[in-house]
Design goal:
Length: about 400
């Protein structure tokens, strides 16, 4: 766990932890035993069995294809979940900022990939200092310009050993060198550096498309093939095994196909959302969802849900719930009503409705059928990355019994 944060064994529930019952205050978060019915709404809950299932599915899927997995830790920012991913066979954790990299290193992650350029001098020196004190750990960051290399060499102290992956981009996408010729120039500069070590090539295909239409799949595949070709070009410049990495949580099947011919390289996926999957965006786009006509045993399952209570029914067919933008994600689709119950964790019945809008603390539920003030609606969620960041402490429930035995602390 992070040196500057309490461990799971030390962290206890406090009155400031949203929606936790007062009866749990002072209890270690790894030693809880409380029914869901004692929690308040709104509430985000993780499904223990679904997370275990998803860890096993992804470990099996990558293992069968000879791929490594360094899942994106920014999805959860929860070191206790990172540890479970590492125990399931992941070879490292990926992060998105220098601060996140510092947290991951201090959490004891052996290999941290920073899928971004770090250009903050103070953070660079802090990271270099940690690596000097912990030679057993490795940090590898991305670079997409010669100017980035100039800054790294200027700010890193002598004796640093920062790994670098040259990032390939695409026109209209996000970061990354737009031309292979630029990527090669960057690689050659890194090989001449006294503080940088060339590791290979990297990229992010998820910025190229947003669905699984034929045009989108063709565009993503073409980009992944370009990245694979760049890795082959860089292979002669890299000392040791060359890294080639891509793969968000939407198109990792296409990445696997493009990387398959690259023998003798470390072929690394970074998919992070898989641990809890979702009921929205990733369910519609992931190659491992049950909608892809695959068996449930081979598919990722939704491992997060929210509960919200009916607080107002101001007109027929409209109910206002007590969960809003500060509680549930909405950037990749609004929550999906799944069921309704008289009390939190109680017997559920079907609900025919749709969330049409969110305010800061309210959800607008358009529905047919019977609802009553105080009833609890179960919500499927879309996009894990913007679900976890709204909660500092998240209960993990046994779906079969409705009992919470632990909670996950996040660091955003």
């Amino acid at each position: 766990m992070p040196e500057h944060a309490p461990s799971a064994a030390e962290r206890t529930v406090g009155l400031e932890d949203k929606s936790f019952p007062a009866a749990l205050v002072g209890r270690p978060i790894s030693e809880l035993d409380a029914p869901l019915s004692t929690f308040s709404t709104p509430l985000l809950v993780l499904d223990a069995a679904a997370m275990t299932h998803n860890l096993e599915v992804m470990a099996r899927w990558t293992g069968e294809r000879g791929l490594e997995l360094m899942p994106h830790g920014k999805t959860t920012m929860a070191p206790v979940l990172w540890r479970r991913q590492l125990e399931a066979g992941c070879t490292g954790i990926t992060v998105a900022t220098g601060w996140q990299a510092d947290l991951a290193l201090r959490a004891g992650v052996p290999t941290v990939q920073l899928a971004n350029a770090c250009t903050d001098p103070a953070l660079l020196r802090r990271l270099a200092e940690h690596l000097a004190e912990h030679p057993e750990q490795e940090l590898v960051c991305w670079a997409d310009s010669l100017a980035t290399i100039d800054l790294l060499e200027r700010e890193l102290p002598a004796g640093s050993r920062l790994g670098v992956l040259v990032e390939l981009g695409a026109d209209g996408a996000r970061t990354g060198a737009r031309e292979e010729s630029t990527a090669l120039e960057i690689a050659e500069r890194v090989t001449a550096s006294e503080v940088l070590v060339l590791r290979g090539a990297s990229g992010y295909e998820g910025a190229i498309a947003h669905d699984r239409s034929p045009a989108a799949l063709a565009a993503v595949s073409a980009y992944c093939e370009r990245l694979a070709a760049l890795a082959q070009q860089l292979d002669a410049l890299v000392e040791g095994e060359t890294w080639v990495t891509a793969g968000g949580s939407a198109y990792f099947d296409l990445v696997a196909d493009a990387f398959a011919p690259l023998r003798g390289m470390r072929r690394i996926l970074r998919s992070g959302a898989y641990i809890v999957h979702d009921s929205g965006f990733y369910r519609g786009i992931s190659p491992l969802d049950t909608t892809r006509d695959i068996a449930e045993s081979e598919a990722l399952l939704p491992g997060m849900r929210a509960y919200a209570r009916v607080v107002s029914m101001p007109e027929p067919g409209l109910a206002l719930l007590d969960a809003g933008k500060r509680d549930v994600p909405y950037d990749e689709g609004l929550p999906v009503p799944l069921a309704v119950a008289g009390e939190l964790g109680g017997p559920e019945r079907e609900l025919d409705g749709e969330i049409t809008a969110l305010n800061d603390q309210h959800a607008f539920l358009r529905h047919t059928g019977e609802l009553a003030i105080g009833e609890v609606v179960t919500l499927g969620l879309s996009h894990p990355c913007t679900a976890f960041d709204k909660w500092r402490l998240i209960p993990v429930a046994d779906a079969a019994t409705g009992t919470v035995h632990e909670a996950v602390e996040t660091f955003f």
